[in-house]
Amino acid sequence: MTAATLPAAPASAQPERTKQRVLELLKRHGTLTAQALASGLSVSVPAARRHVQDLQEQGLIEARTERPGGRGRPQHVFGLTERGEAAFPKTYSTLCVDVLRHVEGLFGEGAVMQVLGARSAEVAVGLRSEVPDDLPLEERVRHLAERLCGTGFDAVVEPGAEGTWYIVERNCPNLTVARQYGELCASELDMFVNVLGVPVTRDTRIACGQGTCRYRIGP
């Protein structure tokens, strides 16, 4: 793909729209050089680089080094990160709901909890291998919250009274599924208990219309 083949954006595009256009170009064409992006945006190369830098700071795109066609002199190109890919609509949630609906229809109501419970148990085994039981509870809670952030939950840790802690999830990337299958939230709660080895209760739930999923952790 050469710069000359990229569609040009209107010169009057606003900065945020221009940044969105950068993401769209990278989604459509894969990796591109700053020069190719500038041509596609109808802006100067320095202007394109400013937009690229902003998007890099937001974690949406990353710089790479590639050889054109696998040969020739290496060149710096830019491509979407996993977070950048997530900015585009996906149908995963619809697929997941359809699969769970068929599981329930074929094997009965309890089958959905069995499937999701098995998945959570598997995740818990992996996490427990990373978080030894002899670590202080705060460290285990913070490690779990960090892993949750990595999967889109935007989790933060808050101290509570008498040695308790809270994990507060400010986003639910599985909201479409959770609204139709409460078993998903139940399996998440079980996973927290398995990983942390202490009582965990949920005070609020996004799938029920509340602003966060708030978990109380500790005795």
TrEMBL record:
Organism in which the protein naturally occurs: Deinococcus aetherius
Xref: InterPro entries: ArsR-like_HTH, WH-like_DNA-bd_sf, WH_DNA-bd_sf
Source species, domain of life: Bacteria
Name the record gives this protein: Transcriptional regulator
Gene3D superfamilies referenced in this protein's UniProt entry, alphabetically: Winged helix-like DNA-binding domain superfamily/Winged helix DNA-binding domain
Pfam family, one: HTH_24
